[in-house]
Design brief:
Number of helices: 1
Oligomer: single chain
Order of helices and strands: EEEH
Mean pLDDT: 85
Low-confidence stretches: none
């Protein structure tokens, strides 16, 4: 087996009223302030068409077992979410 390392850094400019909270499992999520919550975590995207106009999806209903096996391959995972305030 090979090991695949993926590093993703995502910066977003978000409204001032968004806040970080922890869910019941202690995972940090974003409280959008309007009764909705945003979880920015690892989600595999799949397509059957590798072209410029390919449509990627995380709807695995057509092959849920394969998608589940991808998640099972994850041996380490760390998501660090911070809200930085401008001075």
């Amino acid at each position: 087996m090979k090991k695949l390392n993926i590093t993703i850094t995502l910066g977003m400019e978000v409204p001032d009223h968004w806040e970080l909270i922890k869910d019941e499992d202690g995972i940090e999520i974003v409280d959008l302030g309007d009764g909705r919550y945003l979880d920015l975590t690892f989600t595999p995207m799949m397509t059957d068409d590798y072209s410029e106009n390919a449509e990627w999806t995380n709807d695995y209903l057509y092959d849920y077992r394969f998608a589940e096996s991808i998640v099972d391959m994850v041996t380490e995972y760390q998501a660090i979410i911070k809200i930085l305030t401008a001075h």
